[in-house]
C-alpha cells in the first residue's frame, strides 16, 4: 500500500481587483496570488476498502463530505472510476497549520494536494493543466494552489499566468481564531454596494484584466522590490470587510504603525491581515510588539515568507 505526504502552502493576495459580474453569479477578477511558507501537511494512502476517509486533529476542520479535500477525492473517483476500482479507496490525513477560514486558501490547498496525491497513487500522469482543470471544479483558488508561486489570476480566479517568482520577502500574519468571514457574503456585499462601477462589456473586461499584466505592481514584482510591491498592494474586498469587522481594521492600523512594515493588506476575503517587512529579524520584533499590544490569546500570529512552490512531495512510502 503506497502513501504520499505532501506540503500544501497557503496563499496571500498581493492584489485583488473586482472588475465585473459574471452570468454564473461569480465575479471577474484580476488578482496577484502569492504562495507562502505557512503550510499544511497532507498524507494520502490507498485503502483496501472502497471508501474515502478524512482525519484531522484540528477542531475546526470537518472530516465529512463538507471537507474540500474529501470532495477532491470524490471528484477523482468520479473522473477515474477504473483506477478507483483497481487501487481502492483513499485515506486523507490533514495536519493543519494554516488558520481556518482565514482568506489563506486553507481548504483549497488541501484539495489541490489531494488531486496531486491521488494522481501519484493511481499513476495517472496528469499534466499541471489537467490538474488545474479538475481543481477549478472544486473552487476558484484550487487551480492556483497546485503549482503556486507568484501568479496573475483572472476570470473567476482560475486563469493563471506565472510572474517572476518571489521568495525571501518576510511576512507577519495575524488572524483572530474565532473570527470568520464568509467569502460569498464579502462578494455579495461588494456587488450590492459597488456593482454599479463594474465593467459591463466583454472587450473592456479583457482590456482591464490585461492592463493588470503591465500594471505598476507587476513591474515592482519584476524588479523584486519588496518596498515597491508593498506600496502597490490592493484588495477591493477591504472596502466591505473593514467597515463590518473593526478587529480587522484595528489589526491593519496596528501593522501600519510598526517601524519596519513596508505595507499591510487583508488577504482574500479576510479576516487575516498581513504585513510585508524588511527582514526576518524585524518580522519577529513586530510579531512580539503586536502580541504585547493585543495580549488576547484568540489572536494567532505567524512569521512566514513568500515561497516559489505550490504542492510539493515531502515523502513517499
Ligand atoms: C477571495 C479569494 O480567496 C481570493 O483569492 C477567492 O476569490 C475565493 O476563492 P474560493 O474560496 O476558492 O471561492 P469559491 O469556493 O470558488 O467561491 C466561494 C464564493 O465566493 C464567491 N466568488 C468567488 C470567486 C469569484 N471570482 N467570484 C465570487 O463571487 C461566490 O459567491 C462563491 O459562492
Ligand atoms: N480542508 C479544509 N481545511 C479547512 N477548512 C475546511 C476544509 N474543508 C472544508 N473546510 C471548511 O471551509 C471553511 C473555510 O475554510 P478555509 O480555511 O478553506 O477558508 P479560506 O482560507 O478563507 O479559503 P479561501 O481563501 O479559499 O476563501 C471552514 O469554515 C471549514 O469549515
Automatic annotation (TrEMBL):
Instruction: Tell me the Gene3D superfamilies matching this sequence.
Output: 3.30.230.10, GHMP kinase, C-terminal domain
The pathway entry for this protein reads as: Isoprenoid biosynthesis; isopentenyl diphosphate biosynthesis via DXP pathway; isopentenyl diphosphate from 1-deoxy-D-xylulose 5-phosphate: step 3/6
Q: What is the name of the protein in this document?
A: 4-diphosphocytidyl-2-C-methyl-D-erythritol kinase
- The EC category is transferase
- Segments forming domain GHMP kinase N-terminal: 67-149
Enumerate the NCBIfam families for this protein: ispE
Active-site residues annotated for this sequence = 11, 141
Amino acid at each position: 500500500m503506497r502513501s504520499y505526504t505532501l506540503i500544501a502552502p497557503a496563499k496571500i493576495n498581493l492584489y485583488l481587483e473586482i472588475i465585473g459580474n459574471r452570468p454564473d453569479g461569480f465575479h471577474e477578477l484580476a488578482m496577484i496570488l502569492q504562495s507562502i511558507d505557512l503550510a499544511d501537511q497532507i498524507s494520502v494512502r490507498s485503502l483496501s476498502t472502497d471508501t474515502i476517509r478524512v482525519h484531522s486533529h484540528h477542531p475546526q476542520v470537518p472530516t465529512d463530505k463538507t471537507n474540500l479535500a474529501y470532495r477532491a477525492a470524490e471528484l477523482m473517483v468520479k473522473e477515474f472510476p477504473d483506477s478507483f476500482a483497481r487501487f481502492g479507496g483513499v485515506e486523507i490525513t490533514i495536519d493543519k497549520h494554516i488558520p481556518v477560514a482565514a482568506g489563506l486558501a486553507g481548504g483549497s490547498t488541501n484539495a489541490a494536494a489531494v488531486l496531486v496525491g491521488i494522481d501519484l497513487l493511481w499513476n495517472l500522469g496528469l499534466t499541471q493543466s489537467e490538474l488545474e482543470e479538475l481543481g477549478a471544479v472544486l473552487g476558484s483558488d484550487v487551480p492556483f494552489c497546485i503549482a503556486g508561486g507568484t501568479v496573475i489570476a483572472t476570470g473567476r480566479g482560475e486563469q493563471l499566468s506565472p510572474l517572476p517568482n518571489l521568495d525571501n520577502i518576510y511576512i507577519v500574519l495575524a488572524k483572530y481564531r474565532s473570527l470568520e468571514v464568509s467569502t460569498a457574503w464579502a462578494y455579495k456585499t461588494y456587488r450590492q454596494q459597488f456593482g454599479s462601477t463594474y465593467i459591463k462589456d466583454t472587450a473592456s473586461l479583457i482590456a482591464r484584466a490585461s492592463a493588470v499584466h503591465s500594471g505598476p505592481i507587476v513591474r515592482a514584482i519584476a524588479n523584486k522590490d519588496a518596498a515597491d510591491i508593498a506600496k502597490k498592494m490592493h484588495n477591493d474586498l477591504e472596502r466591505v470587510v473593514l467597515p463590518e469587522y473593526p478587529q480587522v481594521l484595528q489589526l491593519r492600523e496596528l501593522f501600519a504603525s510598526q517601524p519596519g512594515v513596508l505595507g499591510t493588506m487583508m488577504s482574500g476575503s479576510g479576516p487575516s491581515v498581513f504585513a510585508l517587512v524588511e527582514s526576518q529579524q524585524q518580522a519577529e520584533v513586530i510579531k512580539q510588539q503586536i502580541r504585547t499590544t493585543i495580549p488576547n490569546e484568540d489572536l494567532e500570529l505567524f512569521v512566514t515568507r513568500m515561497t516559489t512552490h505550490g504542492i510539493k512531495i515531502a515523502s513517499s512510502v
